[in-house]
Specification:
Layout (H helix, E strand, L loop, with lengths): L1 H9 L3 H11 L4 H22 L1 H10 L18 E2 H6 L14 E5 L9 E5 H15 L10 E5 L10 H9 L2 E5 L5 H13 L4 E5 H13 L8 E5 L5 H11 L2 E8 L4 E4 L7 E3 L4 E6 L11 E8 L10 E2 L3 E3 L1 E2 L12 E2 L9 E3 L5 E3 L3 H5 L4 E10 L2 E8 L5 H15 L4 E6 L14 E3 L6
Parallel strand pairs: 1-13, 4-5, 4-6, 6-7, 7-8, 19-22, 20-21
Antiparallel strand pairs: 2-3, 8-9, 9-10, 10-16, 11-12, 12-14, 15-16, 17-18, 19-20
Helix pairs in contact: 2-6, 3-4, 9-10
């Protein structure tokens, strides 16, 4: 009934996808492959007919849709990076995208460079159904209250009516992780106790800080489920969360622009890949398949996004290759990978007691005309904000960023805005948007 109400309010088809996913997670390997390749054929045909980028690409490579029939056939196509998506944004739109109730969206920007893309309501519905399926691998049941610790209210403003209704229908209690203080954490704890909330979902590092506070203050919240997302759940995160709550932990990965979705289950034996939403490849530097048990670049082909089909899309995430073992103890036959390697975000801690969760900042900086941004903390009472600006950046933007950063960092923290021409890339090749030089290794 809850999903029926959600679908009526949002004009979505989450319930149909949810019912389908309850069955597909137990399919045989053969049925999984047949499903994916049938969906792939339809998507390639659509891309060839309606997407200018692929019309030109197929012509240049002398390919026809019939040449891409299997998952292996995809290797005939070059990969699409986020940089390529940015450069060819309009050409990658399907000319008939409005027929699919398309929506303009943007990535979270954890690399410092948010990327625009198009999606449709069918894909959005599927990904919410996948969330519910993942959450239910813990003691959570749809409709039960969930404490959401995430990037809400980065910029202080009223929540839209649509978002308020969504939160109410889903029984979400929102707690902003942007600027956490002992006082705000205590207030949220009181809400959790008063409303008898048993499930927490949100960014890994703020949940870690929350758990650390509860542990240090000997607060037992009777939490049964913790669902992490948006950043890598590190071993020290998990250790403190287990000590504080002893919950079932479901660690989840999502890439909305590429259709990728995966999560652990209560047995914590790798990430179950959602084969219903995308084809996953793990590629080496030459975009060929990486060897078993090696790390490689995640390469995704969304199977449902007809508004902007992306074949062999690389969002910039590194993963440990597939686990080729027996079926998981939970009984699900979905393929698994060992772990998500990148991207991780540091936690910022200041002398005034403020603690800032990293994944929230992309929501702030995406509001301004910036090519790239980076936060560097060298001292406990200061922060450097390095910005590579675009042509339409003006002084009022700089002043607003300063105001917002000072608001979140709190009293006594000096915010320095630096307009730079270049932000150095580390040896790893992965751009770090938050660097905390005051933290000791944990």
């Amino acid at each position: 009934m809850r999903l029926k109400i959600i679908d009526l309010l949002g004009k979505t088809n989450i319930r149909n996808w949810y019912n389908f996913l309850q069955k597909s997670q137990y399919w045989s390997k053969e049925k999984q492959q047949i499903y994916q390749e049938e969906k792939l054929c339809l998507l390639v045909e659509h891309a060839y007919k309606y997407v200018p980028y692929y019309q030109k690409l197929f012509k240049r490579l002398k390919l026809k849709p019939c040449d891409i029939q299997t998952i292996t056939d995809l290797q005939q196509l070059p990969v699409i990076t986020r940089k390529i998506l940015q450069k060819n944004y309009h050409e990658l739109m399907a000319s008939n995208h409005e027929e699919f109730n398309s929506q303009y969206r943007s990535t979270g920007g954890t690399t410092g460079m948010p990327v625009k893309y198009l999606s449709d309501y069918n894909t959005w519905s599927l990904h919410w159904a996948l969330k519910y399926r993942a959450w239910e691998m813990s003691p959570y049941k749809i409709g039960e209250k969930v404490a959401i610790i995430g990037g809400a209210s980065v910029v202080p403003e009223k929540t839209s009516m649509k978002r308020l209704i969504w939160n109410i229908v889903n029984s979400f209690e929102i707690f902003s992780s942007v600027s956490m203080t002992h006082s705000s954490i205590q207030q949220f704890i009181e809400r959790i106790i008063r409303k008898r909330i048993k499930h927490i979902r949100g960014y890994a590092s703020p949940i870690f800080l929350f758990a650390e506070y509860c542990l240090e203050n000997k607060i037992d919240l009777k939490i049964t489920s913790v669902i992490t997302t948006a950043e890598v759940l590190q071993p020290y995160h998990k250790q403190i969360i287990i000590k504080a709550f002893n919950p079932v932990i479901i660690d989840s990965y999502g890439c909305a622009d590429g259709g990728g979705n995966a999560n652990t289950c209560k047995h914590d034996n790798g990430f179950h890949i959602s084969i219903e939403s995308a084809i996953w490849e793990v590629c080496d530097n030459s975009s060929s398949p990486a060897l078993p048990n090696e790390m490689g670049e995640l390469t995704l082909t969304s199977l449902t996004n007809y508004a902007m089909p992306l074949l062999r899309y690389q969002p910039g995430d590194v993963i440990k290759n597939f686990i080729n073992t027996e079926i998981c103890l939970c009984g699900r036959t979905l393929p698994r990978i060992e772990r998500i390697v990148g991207k991780n975000t540091d936690i910022l801690k200041f002398s005034n007691g403020r603690m800032l969760g990293g994944p929230s900042f992309p929501q702030l900086f995406r509001l301004f005309p910036l090519q790239q941004w980076q936060l560097v903390q060298n001292e406990m009472n200061s922060i450097d904000v390095n910005l590579i600006i675009l042509d339409d950046f003006i002084i009022s933007h700089k002043n607003k960023i300063t105001e917002l950063m000072e608001h979140h960092c709190g009293v006594g923290v000096k915010v320095r805005i630096n307009l730079v021409n270049k932000i150095p890339i580390p040896i790893s090749g992965k751009q770090r948007v938050i660097i905390n030089k005051t933290l000791r290794e944990i």
